[in-house]
Amino acid sequence: MRRREERQTIRQLRQGRRDAYEAIICRHYAAIYRFLAYLTYDSGLAEELTQETFAAAWAGVDSYRGRASLGTWLHRIAYRKFIDAKRGLERDAHLKDRLKEHAREALDADASNPLHRLAADEECRLVQEAMLKLESSEYLVVLLHYIEGLSFREMTGILDEPVGTVKWRTSRALKRLRQYLTGGVKR
């Protein structure tokens, strides 16, 4: 799109014209998805972040000043979405490691050391209490993946849901579990 066409399209977006949204998506969707796929190495996550990019663009269309091309603006939003997702994945990885560590501690607690056993029991109790605060669907995916050790593919066979949905539900469950463990959410 040339600059004049972009300005006209932005005006139409701000007016809420559906054809302007469709034109932007048709023009930029593949490039944004490809960019995110190369960053994430995960087609499902790239798809999710691409959708989030366009949703954020629509929500923030009034903040677009036209200093950069529309494509550059969308790529900038996409990159921010990637960074946010990466941070979330790192937090999730830390929580996953913590869950695995608690499970190992519970199994490996030295029966001859009551203090060690008491500390491990307390950590397990806190994790169990936090898990009980999860919705049943969230509890189920945490149980299947982190306690039973099933892969996302194996979980799809049990839950009869697409792998992307299972990953999303697991991510959401971990986020809520993390909030419960850090005191961020009361239920």
Low-confidence stretches: none
Please give the CATH class of the largest domain: Mainly Alpha
- CATH-scheme architecture of the largest domain: Orthogonal Bundle
Q: Give the count of helical stretches.
A: 8
Helix content: over 70%
Q: Could you describe the largest sheet, including whether it forms a barrel?
A: none
**What coarse outline follows from CA principal-axis ratios?**
elongated
C-alpha Rg (nearest Å): 22 Å
Give the amount of beta strand, in percent. Answer: under 5%
Classify the fold: give the CATH topology of the largest domain: Rna Polymerase Sigma Factor, Chain: A
Find the CATH superfamily of the largest domain. Answer: RNA polymerase sigma factor, region 2, helix turn helix motif
Terminal CA distance reads 50 Å
Mean pLDDT: 78
- SSE class: mainly alpha
Number of strands: 0
- Count of structural domains: 2
Describe this structure in words.
There is one protein chain. The chain has 187 residues and is an all-alpha fold. The chain folds into 2 domains: 3-87, RNA polymerase sigma factor, region 2, helix turn helix motif (Rna Polymerase Sigma Factor, Chain: A); 109-182, Winged helix-like DNA-binding domain superfamily/Winged helix DNA-binding domain (Arc Repressor Mutant, subunit A). It has helices at residues 3-14, 18-40, 43-59, 70-108, 114-132, 136-147, 152-159, 163-182. The longest helix is centred in the middle third of the chain and has 39 residues, at 70-108. It starts with a helix and ends in a 5-residue tail after the last helix. The mean pLDDT is 78.
